[in-house]
Amino acid sequence: MVRLATVGSCLLLASCGATPLLPSGPVTPSRMVDIPGGTYRVGGAIGWSLPAPEREVTLRPFAIDVTEVSVAQYNACVRSGACTRADGGAFCNGDNADRLDHPINCVLRTQATSYCRWLGKRLPTEDEWEVAGRGTDGRPMPWASGSSHGRPCDASGAQRPTFESYSGTCPVGASPGDASPFGVLDLAANVGEFTSSTAPSGEPITRGGSWHHSVLPMLYDRIPATPDTTSVGVGFRCAR
Fold first, then answer.
1. CA spacing 20 to 30 A to 142: which of 18, 36, 101, 135?
2. Considering the entire predicted model, what is its pTM?
3. Contact 68, 237 (CB under 8 A)
């Protein structure tokens, strides 16, 4: 439906000067899962961009969102005034009324941080993110080795017959086979995710595969993000 705005005696299309309304829809807060504190093994492979040496980490108990933050959830924060709008453009989800249940993308880490803070949450550290995906046995994928699982939302999955035919993200939580031992979804694909951790160069670290890569980077992959540039392949989830 086209939104009309009246200015004096003129009718103007919202797209001709006025700021268009954000798509709105039902907003359900993200369900969280509790991760017990303890000593976990992380790393053990080389990510595409940053080394990931194998090591043990001791974490305090934390909770993490089961799914990535959706467009509807993020736009609710924008309408509240606590968040700024996500970038638009091809494969950006924020302004698409038919993608309200897809992950928000095309945001900066500062925007992700603002959203989590709005809900009294925070971004996970990269160690927390990795443990949420690998569980207690340090598996390289969220699913058990050799298990029969539904393909994640990535360039080589059932949703993507070939890399060249990818068409964007999937709804959050739509690939139940991409579930970790703790029941956290979409860690291997859909969108890579911001963490609160920072590379030695000062760049934000993102973790996980995305809809336009194969799942081969697994849960080891550590990619630095350009602080002032957004990506169609990066979103986030919150922790507490």
1. 101
2. 0.85
3. yes
CA distance 76 to 71: 9
> Rounded to whole angstroms, how far apart are CA atoms 2 and 24?
14
Res 48: pLDDT: 59
CA dist 170 and 186 (Å) reads: 10
Query: What is d(CA 68, CA 185) in angstroms, rounded to the nearest whole number?
Result: 8
Rounded alpha-carbon distances, angstroms, from residue 35 to 63, 91, 108, 186, 240: 6, 33, 26, 17, 10
For 67-96, what is each residue's pLDDT tens digit?
A: 999 999 999 999 999 999 999 998 999 999
Distance of alpha carbon 107 from alpha carbon 221, whole angstroms: 20
124: tokens are 């996970």
Query: Which domains are delineated in the chain?
Result: 25-235 (3.90.1580.10)
**Rounded Cα gap, residues 71 and 12, in angstroms:** 27
Helix or strand run (H / E) with residue 12: strand 10-13
Q: At what angle do helices 109-118 and 71-80 cross, to 10 degrees?
A: 80
- Rounded CA-CA distance 28/234 in Å is 21
Question: What is the rounded CA–CA span in Å between residue 160 and residue 209?
Answer: 14
Geometric angle at alpha carbon 126, from 120 and 128, rounded to 5°: 65
